[in-house]
C-alpha cells in the first residue's frame, strides 16, 4: 500500500496475545516478545540507519515493526533498506537464540516495566476493563501477566511457547510506504528473507522429554545458537483458527432469564482526585462491508458531535457541576467488540449534579433527536473533513496507515483508502435524513436514558412502539464503574490524583503492569490505602445504590432543544472595508534590512519563507507546504509568558499570566458573539484553536481547512481576539478551579512531586516556573489578569507564523486587511529578561529522598542541574544580538588540512545554530549510553532518559535525567545513571557514536519536515527581536550544521555542564504501603504539600540573605565560590542540629 514519501513501515504480526496464554503462562507472550526482539543482532544492525523499530503485545497480537528510510546512506554507497529490514524481521520472529544472558536482562526489564507503569491511571484502567469484561478473560488476563510467574520461567518454557505460536503460517507481514510499482521486486525480497524459514510442523509424541527445546520450525537452538538434529515431526502447522474463546455479554437482544440491570461497582483509592463514573454498553462489532454500514457510522459521528456541543453549552454556565462529560462509541479490535462509553467527571461534592446534566442531555437527544440545523451543519462539517482527509491520503505517515489497516482487518472491515471512502460518502451523504439520525440516537442512547426500564423498553419495541427501527434495537447498560477518591477536604473538594483519558489506553506492553499487584476494589474493606485518613481530610462516602438511583431518577424531564444561529462572518465585509479605510494598513520594511528596503521582499530562495511586517508593528512569516493538502496552521506568538509574572500572592502575582491565559480560553468567544455561536462557526470552518502560555511566550495555535474562506475566517478570529477579547468572571472561576485541581494533584503524583522537589531545590523562591499554590490562585483578580496578558498581546510584540497549503497573494491580502487593521498601541515596554537563577543550597536539599503512601510499590529518581543556553556562544550570559552575516560551514573530507579544519571550526562555532546542534547531538549520545548501560547491560530499569529544557529568550535552562526501577534497585539505578552522565571525559565520544547521533537527528528532522506543526516551529521567532539569533539562514543551514559537527563540538557542549556533587541535584521518590528505611513517610497530599512548603521556606531563606542563619549563609558562599564545601557543611549542620537536641 502507498504511504509517505521516502519511507517504508514493515511489521510482522503474530496472532498471539495474553488471552492465548495458559494459567501458568500469564505474561509469557510479552517476555518472549522482549527476548526475540532485543536479542536480534540484525535488529541492532538497523541502529544508526535512521530506522525506528519497536514491538508490542496486547490481548490478541504480538507485533514487531520497523519504520525505515528507503535508502541506507550511513555507510559508504547508498543501499536499499528494505532487504535489511526484512532480514531483521525474519530473524526476530523465526530465528531467535534465547540466550541466557538476554533472557535475564529482559526478565529484569519486564519487572521494572511493571512497576514503572503501575500509576494510578493504569490501575483505574485495569478496573474499568475488569468490570467491563468480567465475563471473559479480557477482564483479568492482561498482557503484562503476573510478575511472580515472570520471575520463574526458564528457557525451555519460553521456547515451548514460541514453538507453539511462532511459525510462518501463523504470521502476517505488512509493507506500507513509498513503494512505487516495484511489486515483483518486493515479492522477491520477501521470498529471499522469509522463504528459507522452515514451515512449522506438528510435533509427534516423543519419549525423550526434549520437546521443549525444539522450535516450531523443526530446528532446535542451544544457548549459543548451534542447531541440534531435528526430532520426529508430523504434519505442517496451519494458522491457529481455534483460539481460546472470548465470549462477550452484549447489551442488546432479548433479556436472558434472571438478567437484571447492572449494579454500580466502586473502585476507591487515596491517590484519586475526582469522581469519575463510566457507563458501558458492549455491542457486537458490525463489520463495515456495505454502504449501509458506512451510513450508520456516519450518523453515529453526527450524534456524538451534537451531544458534545450541547454538553459544552452546559459547561459554560456560571458554576457547572461537572469537569467533563464525554460519550464515545467505537469498535475495538483489541477487545473484539464495540463499546459505547459515557464518562462523567466532577469534583466529588458535585457528583449528583454532574450525573443530572449528563442524563438530561442524553435523554433530550434520545427523545427529541437532532434539529434540522444541527443535522445540516454536521453533515457539511463531516463532508469537508472527509474531503480534506482524501486530499491528504498520500501524506499520511506509513505507521498510521499500518495501524488503520491492521485495526480494520481485525474488525472485519473492508479496507478502503481515504479517497475511496470519500467518493462513496459523497454519493449518499446528502440523502441522510433527520428521521434516520433520530432513530439511530433513540437506539444507541437508550442504555443511558432508560436505565432500570429495560424490560418496558424491549416490550414497547416488540409492539412496534417508539423509534427503534435501527439495528440492534434498544440497548442496555452492561457495566457501571465509579472511581472515587478515598478522601476529600471537608468541603468535598478533591485532594489529589489523576485519571486516564481513554479506557484501555495502556493495554499494550509498553504501558502496563501486573493487575495482581493488589489493585484494590471498593469491596476490600481491609485495604490499607483506605485507612489512615490524612491530616485535614475526611473520608468520601458514596454508596453504589445512590449512584444507581441518580442514573434512574425519573424526575429529570427534558424539553426539545432550540437551534442556534451560526454567523457567516465574525466581521462583515462592510466592517472590514470601514476598518481598512480608517486605519489604512500597509506593509513596511523588515527591521533586519532597514527602513530603505523592500516592504514586500520575495520568498527566501533556500527555504521558501516569506516575511512581512505590518504598519502596526506585527511581524508575519509564512511558507507554503504540501504536507497536508487543503489544510494550514497559524501560530500567534507574544513574547513574555510566565517569566513576567510577579512573585507571591497578589492581583498580578504568581500565576497571573498562566491563569489569565486560561481564563481567555475558558471564555471561548470574542466580540459580541456568544460562545456557542463562535464554536459552531469554528466547526463549520474546521477550525481548531489552542491558547496557552509557557515560561517565555503567550501563544495561540490554529489548525484549519483551506477553502470556504478558511484563512479569512481565522484572521477574523485573530482580529477580534486582539481587539475585543472577552474577560468574564465565570471563565476566571473555571480557570482558577482547574489550576487548583492541578495543584492538589501534585502531592499524589510520584513523578510530578519528585520533579517539583528538584525544581524547588534549584530555583528556591522563584515560583515563575512552578504551579501557583491556592493562596496565589485566590489572590488573582480579573483586572490583574487582563493587564498582564493584554500587555503582552501588543501588536508590536506579536509574530504571526503561517504554514500549509496556502497561496502567497491570498496570505498578503487577508493579513493586511484583518491583522493590519488591529489598532496599534503605544510601543511595548522592553521586556525584563529575568532568567532563572540556579541556587546551590546545602547537600541535604540537593540530594533528597521521599516516600508517598500508596497501596502499590513504585520508584523513580531524577538527576538535574544547570544547562547552557541554546542561542549564542557557550559561556556568554550577556544578551545576544542579531548576526550581521551568517556563513554556512563545509562538510570537510577526511583528508582535510589542519588549516581547513581550523577555519571551518571558526565558521561553525560562529554560526547561530552551533550551540543548539551540539547540545542535541550530546543529548542523543547520552540517551544511547544510558540505555546501553543502565537498561541493557545492568538491567536496572525499563526506562531512562536525558532531556534538556532550553529556552529561546532566557539564558539559563536545566537538564533532567529520569530513571525508574524497583524499591530495591532505585538507588543503584540512580548511581549508575549519574556515572554515565559523568563518563564522557573518560569514555570519549567515538566516531561511530557521533555518526549514529547525526543520523538519528537528521532522520527525525526529515520525517518531521512532513509535519506542519514541526514546520511551524521552525518559522516561529524568525522576526522576534527577543530571539535575535534565529534568522532564515538557520533553517537553510540546519542539515549542513549537523553533518559538519565534530566530536570536539560535542565535547565543547558537555564542558558547559557541571556534573560534580556540588552542582548536581538528585531526588528519589518511592511509593508503597511502607517506606524504605531511609525515607520519611508522607501521609497523603496535605502532608506532602506541607513538607514541600517547609522545603520552600528553606529555599526562600536561601534566596533572602537577611533571613538566613550563619549555617545557610556559609553554604551559599561556598557554592558561589566553587569551593566544594556544600556537602561538608551539610554534615556539620546535621551534627549541630543533633547537639541542640
What's the total helix number?
A: 37
Q: Please give the CATH class of one domain.
A: Alpha Beta
Q: Please provide the count of β strands.
A: 28
The backbone outline, from C-alpha atoms, is globular
CATH architecture descriptor name of one domain: 2-Layer Sandwich
Which residues form runs of ≥5 with pLDDT under 50? 207-231, 497-503, 510-526, 1101-1141
Structural class label: alpha+beta
Strand order of the largest sheet: 17-18-22-19-21-20
Ends distance: 75 Å
Gyration radius, rounded: 31 Å
Q: Indicate the proportion of strand residues.
A: 5-15%
Mean pLDDT: 86
* Major beta-sheet overview: 6 strands, mixed
CATH topology of one domain: Cytochrome Bc1 Complex, Chain A, domain 1
CATH H-level homologous superfamily name of one domain: Metalloenzyme, LuxS/M16 peptidase-like
Helix content: 40-55%
Keywords: Hydrolase, Metalloprotease, Protease, Zinc
GO molecular function, one term: metallopeptidase activity
Family: Belongs to the peptidase M16 family.
InterPro entries: Metalloenz_LuxS/M16, Pept_M16_N, Peptidase_M16, Peptidase_M16_C
List keywords for this structure.
about 1150 residues; alpha+beta; Cytochrome Bc1 Complex, Chain A, domain 1; six-stranded mixed beta sheet; 28 strands; about 40% helix; disordered C terminus
Amino acid at each position: 500500500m502507498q504511504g509517505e514519501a521516502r519511507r517504508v513501515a514493515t511489521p510482522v504480526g503474530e496472532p498471539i496475545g495474553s488471552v492465548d496464554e495458559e494459567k501458568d503462562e500469564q505474561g509469557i507472550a510479552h517476555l518472549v516478545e522482549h527476548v526475540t526482539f532485543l536479542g536480534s543482532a540484525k535488529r541492532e544492525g538497523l541502529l544508526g540507519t535512521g530506522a525506528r523499530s519497536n514491538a508490542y503485545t496486547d490481548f490478541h497480537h504480538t507485533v514487531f515493526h520497523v519504520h525505515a528510510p528507503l535508502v541506507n546512506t550511513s555507510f559508504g554507497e547508498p543501499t536499499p533498506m528494505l532487504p535489511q529490514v526484512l532480514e531483521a524481521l525474519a530473524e526476530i520472529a523465526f530465528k531467535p537464540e534465547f540466550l541466557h544472558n538476554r533472557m535475564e536482562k529482559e526478565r529484569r526489564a519486564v519487572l521494572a516495566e511493571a512497576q514503572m507503569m503501575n500509576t494510578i491511571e493504569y490501575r483505574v484502567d485495569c478496573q474499568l476493563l475488569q468490570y467491563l469484561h468480567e465475563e471473559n478473560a479480557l477482564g483479568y488476563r492482561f498482557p503484562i501477566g503476573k510478575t511472580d510467574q515472570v520471575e520463574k520461567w526458564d528457557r525451555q518454557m519460553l521456547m515451548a511457547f514460541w514453538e507453539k505460536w511462532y511459525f510462518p503460517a501463523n504470521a502476517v507481514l505488512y509493507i506500507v510506504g513509498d513503494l512505487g510499482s516495484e511489486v515483483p521486486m518486493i515479492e522477491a525480497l520477501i521470498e529471499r528473507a522469509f522463504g528459507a524459514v522452515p514451515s512449522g510442523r506438528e510435533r509427534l509424541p516423543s519419549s525423550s522429554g526434549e520437546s521443549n527445546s525444539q522450535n516450531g520450525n523443526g530446528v532446535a537452538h542451544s544457548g549459543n545458537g548451534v542447531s541440534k538434529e531435528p526430532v520426529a515431526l508430523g504434519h505442517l502447522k496451519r494458522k491457529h483458527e481455534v483460539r481460546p474463546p472470548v465470549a462477550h455479554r452484549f447489551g442488546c437482544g432479548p433479556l436472558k432469564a434472571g438478567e437484571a440491570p447492572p449494579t454500580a461497582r466502586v473502585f476507591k483509592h487515596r491517590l484519586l482526585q475526582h469522581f469519575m463514573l463510566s457507563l458501558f454498553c458492549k455491542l457486537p462489532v458490525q463489520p463495515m462491508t456495505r454502504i449501509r454500514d458506512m451510513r450508520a457510522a456516519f450518523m453515529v459521528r453526527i450524534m456524538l458531535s451534537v451531544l458534545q456541543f450541547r454538553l459544552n453549552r452546559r459547561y459554560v454556565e456560571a458554576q457547572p457541576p461537572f469537569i467533563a462529560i464525554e460519550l464515545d462509541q467505537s469498535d475495538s479490535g483489541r477487545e473484539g467488540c464495540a463499546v459505547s462509553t459515557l464518562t462523567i467527571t466532577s469534583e466529588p461534592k458535585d457528583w449528583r449534579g454532574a450525573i443530572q446534566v449528563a442524563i438530561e442531555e442524553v435523554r433530550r437527544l434520545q427523545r427529541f433527536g437532532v434539529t434540522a440545523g444541527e443535522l445540516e451543519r454536521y453533515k457539511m462539517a463531516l463532508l469537508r473533513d472527509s474531503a480534506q482527509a482524501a486530499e491528504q491520503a498520500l501524506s499520511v505517515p506509513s505507521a498510521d496507515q499500518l495501524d488503520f489497516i491492521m485495526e480494520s482487518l481485525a474488525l472485519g472491515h473492508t479496507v478502503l483508502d481515504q479517497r475511496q471512502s470519500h467518493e462513496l460518502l459523497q454519493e449518499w451523504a446528502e440523502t441522510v435524513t433527520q428521521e434516520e439520525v433520530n432513530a439511530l440516537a433513540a437506539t444507541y442512547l437508550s442504555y443511558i436514558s432508560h436505565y432500570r426500564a429495560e424490560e418496558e423498553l424491549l416490550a414497547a419495541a416488540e409492539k412496534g412502539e417508539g423509534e427503534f427501527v435501527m439495528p440492534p434495537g434498544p440497548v442496555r447498560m452492561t457495566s457501571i464503574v465509579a472511581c472515587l477518591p478515598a478522601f476529600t477536604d471537608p468541603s468535598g473538594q478533591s485532594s489529589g490524583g489523576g485519571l486516564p483519558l481513554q479506557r484501555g489506553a495502556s493495554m499494550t506492553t509498553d504501558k502496563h503492569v501486573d493487575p495482581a499487584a493488589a489493585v484494590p476494589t471498593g469491596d476490600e474493606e481491609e485495604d490499607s490505602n483506605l485507612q489512615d485518613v490524612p491530616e485535614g481530610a475526611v473520608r468520601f462516602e458514596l454508596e453504589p445504590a445512590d449512584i444507581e438511583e441518580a442514573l434512574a431518577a425519573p424526575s429529570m424531564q427534558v424539553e426539545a432543544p432550540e437551534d442556534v444561529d451560526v454567523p457567516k462572518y465574525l466581521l462583515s465585509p462592510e466592517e472590514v472595508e470601514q476598518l481598512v479605510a480608517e486605519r489604512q494598513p500597509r506593509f513596511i520594511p523588515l527591521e533586519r534590512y532597514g527602513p530603505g528596503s523592500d516592504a514586500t521582499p520575495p520568498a527566501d530562495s533556500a527555504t521558501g519563507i516569506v516575511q512581512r511586517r505590518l504598519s502596526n508593528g506585527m511581524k508575519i512569516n509564512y511558507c507554503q507546504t504540501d504536507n497536508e493538502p487543503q489544510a494550514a496552521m497559524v501560530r500567534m506568538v507574544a513574547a513574555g509568558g510566565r517569566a513576567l509574572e510577579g512573585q507571591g500572592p497578589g492581583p498580578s502575582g504568581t500565576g497571573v499570566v498562566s491563569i489569565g491565559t486560561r481564563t481567555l480560553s475558558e471564555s471561548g468567544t470574542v466580540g459580541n458573539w456568544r460562545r456557542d455561536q463562535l464554536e459552531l462557526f469554528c466547526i463549520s470552518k474546521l477550525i481548531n484553536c489552542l491558547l496557552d502560555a509557557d515560561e517565555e511566550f503567550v501563544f495561540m495555535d490554529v489548525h484549519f481547512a483551506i477553502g470556504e474562506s478558511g484563512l479569512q475566517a481565522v484572521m477574523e478570529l485573530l482580529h477580534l481576539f486582539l481587539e475585543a477579547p472577552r474577560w468574564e468572571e465565570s471563565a476566571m472561576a473555571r480557570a482558577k478551579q482547574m489550576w487548583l485541581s492541578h495543584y492538589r494533584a501534585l502531592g499524589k503524583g510520584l513523578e510530578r512531586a519528585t520533579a517539583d522537589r528538584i525544581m524547588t531545590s534549584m530555583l528556591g523562591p522563584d515560583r515563575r516556573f512552578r504551579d501557583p499554590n491556592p493562596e496565589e490562585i485566590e489572590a488573582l483578580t480579573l483586572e490583574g489578569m487582563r493587564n498582564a496578558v493584554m500587555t503582552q498581546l501588543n501588536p508590536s510584540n506579536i509574530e504571526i507564523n503561517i504554514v500549509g497549503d496556502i497561496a502567497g497573494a491570498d496570505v498578503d491580502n487577508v493579513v493586511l486587511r484583518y491583522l493590519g487593521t488591529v489598532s496599534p498601541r503605544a510601543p511595548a515596554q522592553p521586556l525584563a529578561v529575568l532568567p532563572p537563577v540556579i541556587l546551590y543550597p546545602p547537600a541535604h536539599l540537593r540530594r533528597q529522598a521521599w516516600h508517598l503512601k500508596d497501596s502499590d510499590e513504585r520508584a523513580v529518581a531524577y538527576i538535574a542541574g544547570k544547562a547552557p543556553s541554546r542561542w549564542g556562544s557557550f559561556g556568554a550570559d550577556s544578551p545576544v544580538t542579531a548576526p550581521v552575516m551568517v556563513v554556512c560551514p563545509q562538510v570537510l573530507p577526511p583528508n582535510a588540512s589542519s588549516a581547513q579544519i581550523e577555519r571551518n571550526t571558526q565558521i561553525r562555532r560562529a554560526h547561530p545554530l552551533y550551540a543548539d546542534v551540539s547540545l542535541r547531538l550530546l543529548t542523543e549520545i547520552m540517551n544511547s549510553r544510558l540505555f546501553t548501560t543502565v537498561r541493557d547491560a545492568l538491567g536496572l530499569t525499563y526506562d531512562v532518559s536525558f532531556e534538556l529544557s532550553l529556552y529561546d529568550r532566557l539564558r539559563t535552562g536545566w537538564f533532567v535525567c529520569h530513571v525508574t526501577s524497583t524499591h530495591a534497585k532505585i538507588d543503584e539505578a540512580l548511581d549508575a545513571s549519574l556515572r554515565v552522565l559523568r563518563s564522557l571525559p573518560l569514555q570519549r565520544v567515538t566516531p561511530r557514536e557521533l555518526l549514529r547521533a547525526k543520523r538519528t537527528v537528521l532522520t527525525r528532522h526529515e520525517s518531521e519536515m512532513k509535519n506542519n506543526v514541526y514546520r511551524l516551529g521552525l518559522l516561529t521567532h524568525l522576526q522576534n527581536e527577543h530571539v535575535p539569533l534565529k534568522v532564515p539562514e538557520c533553517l537553510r543551514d540546519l542539515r549542513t550544521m549537523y553533518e559538519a559537527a565534530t566530536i570536539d563540538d560535542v565535547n565543547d557542549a558537555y564542558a558547559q555542564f557541571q556534573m560534580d556533587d556540588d552542582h548536581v541535584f538528585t531526588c528519589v521518590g518511592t511509593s508503597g504501603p511502607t517506606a524504605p528505611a531511609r525515607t520519611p513517610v508522607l501521609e497523603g497530599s496535605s502532608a506532602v504539600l506541607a513538607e514541600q512548603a517547609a522545603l520552600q521556606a528553606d529555599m526562600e531563606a536561601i534566596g533572602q540573605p537577611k533571613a538566613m542563619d550563619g549555617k545557610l549563609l556559609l553554604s551559599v558562599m561556598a557554592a558561589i565560590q566553587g569551593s566544594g564545601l556544600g556537602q561538608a557543611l551539610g554534615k556539620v549542620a546535621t551534627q549541630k542540629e543533633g547537639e541542640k537536641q
